[in-house]
């Protein structure tokens, strides 16, 4: 009997991403600089990660935090740029509800992770300047790993409640998002 009175949230099957409002005709040409910047960012960050992994002299906190920042940049750019390019070049602005939530989760989680990694990099430089003789003992490999995991956990815990609440929310209005990626407006 209670199942008759319960309501399930109604989510639209998909949303429509518009791209850049007002510049619909120019989006085809705007996509080329975005594509070039994306290719350079992906190539540069992958090269940076490979160099840091293979060169044992770079296994120090400063370079490990730099590797975390490069990985964060890869995830951020890859979570939104391919869909943006598809919108700009092929006009495929439709995105599924769950895909939109996943994109929103990755964008906001790794934005929080990026700020946390930058804070950890500042902490590393603080210890290197103020305590140069104890720097390697303060920021040992387990401490750097724990800081990286803590920063990732912070980002996930900050964004997860919003995504779960959005998943449960009823959508009664239009399904058009006037951006190139999913955003919580």
From TrEMBL:
Membrane topology: Multi-pass membrane protein
One GO molecular-function entry: G protein-coupled receptor activity
SUPFAM superfamilies per record: Family A G protein-coupled receptor-like (SSF81321)
Membrane-spanning ranges: 28-51, 63-81, 146-166
Ranges of residues in domain G-protein coupled receptors family 1 profile: 44-185
Leader sequence segment: none
Primary localization: membrane
InterPro entries, A to Z: GPCR_Rhodpsn, GPCR_Rhodpsn_7TM, Olfact_rcpt, OR51/52/56-like
Localization terms from the record: Membrane
Domain of life: Eukaryota
Gene Ontology cellular-component annotations: plasma membrane
Alphabetized UniProt keyword annotations: G-protein coupled receptor, Membrane, Olfaction, Receptor, Sensory transduction, Transducer, Transmembrane, Transmembrane helix
UniProt cross-references to PANTHER family, sorted A to Z: OLFACTORY RECEPTOR 52R1, OLFACTORY RECEPTOR 56B1-RELATED
Family indicated by similarity: Belongs to the G-protein coupled receptor 1 family.
Protein name: G-protein coupled receptors family 1 profile domain-containing protein
Lineage: Eukaryota, Metazoa, Chordata, Craniata, Vertebrata
């Amino acid at each position: 009997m209670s199942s008759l009175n319960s309501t399930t949230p109604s989510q639209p099957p998909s949303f429509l991403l518009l791209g850049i409002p007002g510049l619909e005709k120019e989006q085809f040409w705007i996509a080329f600089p975005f594509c070039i910047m994306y290719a350079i960012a992906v190539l540069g960050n992958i090269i940076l990660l490979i160099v840091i992994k293979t060169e044992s002299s770079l296994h120090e906190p400063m370079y490990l935090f730099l590797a975390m920042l490069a990985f964060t940049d890869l995830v951020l750019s890859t979570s939104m740029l391919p869909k943006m390019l598809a919108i700009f070049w092929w006009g495929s602005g439709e995105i599924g509800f769950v895909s939109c939530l996943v994109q929103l989760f990755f964008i906001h989680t790794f934005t929080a992770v990026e700020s946390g990694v930058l804070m950890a990099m500042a902490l590393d430089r603080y210890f290197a300047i103020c305590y140069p003789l104890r720097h390697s003992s303060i920021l040992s490999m387990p401490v750097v790993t724990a800081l990286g995991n803590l920063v990732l956990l912070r980002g996930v815990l900050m964004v997860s409640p919003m995504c779960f609440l959005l998943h449960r929310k009823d959508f009664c209005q239009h399904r058009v998002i006037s951006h190139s990626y999913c955003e919580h407006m």
